[in-house]
Amino acid sequence: MQRALTAVLLAFVVGLTALLTCCLSFRAAPAAAYAPPPLRLSLVSQPDPQPTVQRLGEHLSLVDGLRVLHVWGSHREMGRQQGEALAEEIRGGIQRYMEAKVRDDWGYPLDYQRRCAEAMAKHIPPEYIEEMRGIAEGAGVPYGQVLLLHTHADMVHFGKEWGEVTDGRQRKQESLCSNFVAFGPATVEGKVYHGRNLDWTTGTGIQEFATLLIAEPEDGVPFALLAWAGCIGGVTGMNAEGITFGEMTSSTADETLDGMPLFLACRRILDSCRDLGEVEQFVKTYPGTTGWNFMIADGDAQDALAIEVDAKERVVYRPSDPAELIPPMSYPIPNAIRRTNHPITPSLQESIASRAGITGIKVPVVRTAVPFLDTWQRYAALGHWISEEYYGRIDERVARAMLQSPPVAGGGNLHSAVFNATDRVMWVANASLTDPAWSQPYVRIDLREWLGRR
Hints:
- This protein is an alpha+beta fold and 454 residues long.
- The chain contains 15 helices and 16 strands.
- Strands 1-2-3-6-7-8-9-10-11-12 form a ten-stranded mixed sheet, with helices on both faces.
- β11 and β12 (314-317) form a beta hairpin.
- α4 (75-85) runs parallel beside α7 (126-139).
- The protein is globular, with a radius of gyration of 21 Å.
- It starts with a helix and ends with a helix.
- 53% of the residues are buried.
- Mean pLDDT is 89; it is low at 1-32 and 168-172.
């Protein structure tokens, strides 16, 4: 998700001559020359304690303070189970986040939110509608409020007004995220490790309602999803087939709200896809909304994909992909891939500039500005750590340290996760009300063990 890209590009245009002069050294040096701060390995120097599970009911548990909801059955049943187990949290999230923050502080009137949701609802699979209705029934809240929980992320990242909004407030939300996957010769014992930081909206207090959803749908693949009370979708997760998913905002000019919400696109990948071929087929054909970078790994196939998407374009990148060799901005790595909040695809780079109101700017000029952006620094740091310092030595400890070290570790880190997709194990941390997720204890969750509990 993306830090002030618009402002930086506008400033770049204003000071074009000076900026081009400053960039000559970046053009002469490869991206691999970037040297970030060392990893904070001391933060993971001690082994993780065996997690303590406190059962709060048939479906709800606390694991070292992490709220875990385990549901199963039909979609209506899974929704009702969540609604009943988390009724208080769901009502609190609606009141304190969707109303107090999204509506009142961010300035999205309720009628506007509903219009956006109606446009997206046409593209929501009926079984997900059933599950959201089950949540509404179980929690005793209107279905429309549950729907808004699932459509608001696309709405707040949408660059234009969908209909008329009269209050004139600044509604654009900044966000920045990082993902990487390493496997085979790049890691210890050849395991597939996927690291993911979601940096978004910690100031809203939404982390109070963080929930790890473990679901066993009767007609799909079991999965674990880092979400929030009342949500059946999200932006981070792993399924029982070893498919992992993480997302980063990369908004372009080609966008619409007449598409499937991001939260539910992620859910569809997790509960329906068993390999990267199925993931690629879905992502290439689903009706998208705005710009995102998707990172997906396959623990069994020892492979990964980065897919850059917007409403019109879908571009797939693989480890060692020669298309990623674009000095000074990017370079490929064998057995690894990473993304932050900018696209590698030239047409998408130009579309980002166009979204900011900058036209006639060609790709080489856009690339000249990139090394000055936080998104490029995070991308370059991950590349340096993976390819230059820890190649062949990446394990859960090193993967977590990459998420806990600057510039990847940011103050707005909402949740942080490392997936061992090979063994279906994850380490999960959520932000507190005062501190980012990466600074909090990570809780170990063995998905196979949880699926066996039922």
